[in-house]
Write a structure and sequence with these properties.
The chain is built from 16 helices and 9 strands. By secondary structure, the chain is of the alpha/beta class. The chain folds into 2 domains: about 170 residues, Rossmann fold (3-Layer(aba) Sandwich); about 220 residues, Dehydroquinate synthase-like, alpha domain. The longest helix is centred in the middle third of the chain and has 23 residues. About 50% of the residues are buried. The chain binds nicotinamide-adenine-dinucleotide (NAD) and fe (ii) ion (FE2). The site of nicotinamide-adenine-dinucleotide (NAD) has 28 residues, from helix 5, strand 7 and helix 6.
Length: about 400
C-alpha cells in the first residue's frame, strides 16, 4: 500500500553560483542575520563577499566563526549569547554539517532556552524556531534539508540528536562551487556518508501504513517519497563520487555529488537510517574516526546481514549503479559488491581494523549500538545484541561470508 511523508525546506535553490542570490533570499526572512561558520570559511574571501553583499542591501550581519566539529554545549551557548545580544532574526549556517547544525541549534536556543536536553530525541521541539537558511560547503550530511541537528553532550558516550520537523531550514541554498575546495579525503568521507544515507533509507523497514505514523515518528521508514530521492541519490553518487574524489576540479562531478547528498538528505530525513548508523556511533566515540568513514565501512556488512529482507531493493541498487539486469538474487548480490568496490575506490577501509577498532571492544560496540533504539527499529531485519555481534565480528574480520549462513 502506498504511504509516505515529504518534509523539506520551503525552497531549495540549487546551482552553480546560487550563493550570489543570498542577499535577496535572506531579505525575505529577516534584517539581522547571524552567520554560523568556522575558521576555515571565515578566511575564505567568498565569505567576505557574501557579508558585503548582504550589507549592501541593508541587512545587518554578525559572523560567528568558532564552530567546533563536535558542537559541544559551550560552543552552542557562546554563539547563542552573541546572537541574542545582536538581536538576530534570521540565521545563516554556512559550512559543513557542523555549521548548519549550529545555526539550527542557536535558532532553537534563542526560541526556547539554552538548555537543549529537553529536546533530545524526536518531536520534542515545541514549535516554530527563527528561520534558518542552510548553505552547505561539503556534500555529505544533507543537513540543509534534514530535521536533525547533532551535538556533543559531555554526559553522554555518543553524540546526541535533536529531531523535529521544526529544525528543517526554511531555505537551502546549494552551490556546488562551494565544494570545489574540499580535499579528496573530505570529499570521499562526506560523499560516502551521503551514499550510506541513501542506501539505508532505501532499504529501511517498511511500516504498516497508518494515519498517525508520520505524526508520531519523525523517521517513518521506507516510503514512496524517500524511495524516489534515494534512487536519484544512489544513481548520482554511484556514478560521480569517484570522479569528485579523484578530480576535485570537475564541476560536473561536484554538482552531481552535491545533488546526491541533497537527495539523500531528503530521503533519510523522512525514512531514517538504520544499523550502519547505529553501530557507527559507539565506534566513533571509541576511535574518534570520521562518521562517514565508519558508516561506509559498515555498510556492505549491514547489506549482507539484511540481504534476505531486501532482495528487490538490493537488485534495484545494482541497476542504479549501472550493473546489467540478470536475475533478482544475482543482481542483489552484485549490489553489495558494487557498493564495496565504490567505497574501496575512494579509500574507505574494508574492515573495522582499518578504523583502529580492537577485538576486545566488539562486544561493547554491539551492546552500545542497541541503545540507538530508533535506528535499530528502523532496520529491515530485526536486530539483537547477538546479531549485531555477528555484523561487527564479520566487519572486524573483513569477511562478509561470515554473515551468509543463518
Ligand atoms: N543534521 C544532519 O542531518 C546531520 C547528518 C549527518 C551528520 N551531521 C553532523 O554534521 C557534522 C559533519 O559535517 P561535515 O562532514 O559536513 O563536516 P564538518 O562541518 O564537521 O567539517 C569538517 C571539516 O571540513 C572543513 N570543510 C568544510 N567545507 C569545506 C570546503 N568546502 N573546503 C575545505 N574544507 C571544508 C571544515 O572546515 C572542517 O574542518 C557532524 O557534526 C555530524 O554530527 C548532521
Ligand atoms: Fe550519516
Amino acid at each position: 500500500m502506498a504511504y509516505g511523508v515529504f518534509r523539506s525546506p520551503a525552497v531549495i535553490y540549487f546551482g552553480t553560483g546560487q550563493r550570489k542570490a543570498l542577499p535577496r533570499i535572506v531579505a525575505q526572512h529577516g534584517q539581522r542575520v547571524f552567520i554560523c561558520t568556522d575558521e576555515r570559511f571565515f578566511k575564505d574571501p567568498l565569505l567576505a563577499g557574501i557579508e558585503q553583499a548582504l550589507k549592501a542591501v541593508g541587512i545587518a550581519t554578525l559572523t560567528y566563526d568558532r564552530t567546533i566539529a563536535e558542537l559541544p554545549a559551550s560552543c552552542i551557548q557562546e554563539a547563542t549569547a552573541l546572537a541574542r545580544d545582536f538581536n538576530a532574526d534570521v540565521f545563516l549556517g554556512i559550512g559543513g554539517g557542523s555549521c548548519q547544525d549550529l545555526a539550527k541549534l542557536v535558532s532553537l536556543s534563542m526560541s526556547y532556552g539554552d538548555d537543549l536536553r529537553p529536546f533530545y530525541g524526536e518531536f520534542k521541539v515545541p514549535g516554530k524556531t527563527l528561520p534558518v537558511i542552510a548553505v552547505p560547503t561539503t556534500a555529505g550530511t544533507g543537513s540543509e534539508v534534514t530535521p536533525v541537528a547533532v551535538l556533543g553532550d559531555p554526559e553522554r558516550v555518543t553524540k546526541v540528536g535533536i529531531s523535529s520537523p521544526y529544525l528543517i531550514p526554511v531555505v537551502a541554498v546549494c552551490d556546488p562551487e562551494l565544494t570545489l575546495t574540499c580535499p579528496p579525503r573530505l570529499t570521499a568521507i562526506a560523499g560516502a556518508d551521503a551514499m550510506t544515507h541513501a542506501l539505508e533509507a532505501f532499504t529501511a523497514i517498511r511500516h504498516k501504513p497508518s494515519s498517525e505514523l508520520s505524526l508520531n515518528q519523525v523517521f517513518i521508514g521506507k516510503n514512496i517519497f524517500s524511495d524516489v530521492q534515494a534512487r536519484s541519490a544512489i544513481a548520482a553518487l554511484g556514478k560521480y563520487l569517484p570522479t569528485a574524489v579523484e578530480d576535485g576540479s570537475n564541476l560536473l562531478a561536484r554538482e552531481r555529488v552535491m545533488y546526491g547528498s541533497l537527495a539523500a538528505g531528503l530521503a533519510f530525513g523522512a525514512a531514517g537510517t538504520a544499523a550502519a548508523h547505529a553501530i557507527q556511533y559507539p565506534i566513533g566515540a571509541l576511535t574518534h574516526t570520521a562518521h562517514g568513514l565508519g558508516v561506509a565501512t559498515l555498510m556492505p556488512y549491514v547489506m549482507e546481514f539484511n540481504f534476505e529482507c531486501c532482495v528487490p531493493e538490493l537488485a534495484e541498487i545494482a541497476h542504479l549503479c549501472g550493473l546489467p539486469v540478470q536475475n533478482e538474487a544475482a543482481d542483489a548480490r552484485d549490489a553489495i559488491d558494487a557498493v564495496e568496490q565504490l567505497f574501496s575506490r575512494i579509500g574507505i577501509p574494508s574492515s573495522l581494523q582499518g578504523l583502529n577498532v580492537t577485538a576486545d571492544k566488539l562486544e561493547w560496540v554491539a551492546k552500545q549500538s542497541m541503545l540507538s533504539t530508533r535506528l535499530i527499529n528502523n532496520n529491515p531485519r530485526a536486530l539483537t545484541v547477538d546479531s549485531i555481534g555477528r555484523i561487527v565480528n564479520a566487519a572486524y574480520a573483513g569477511d562478509r561470508s561470515l554473515l551468509r549462513s543463518a
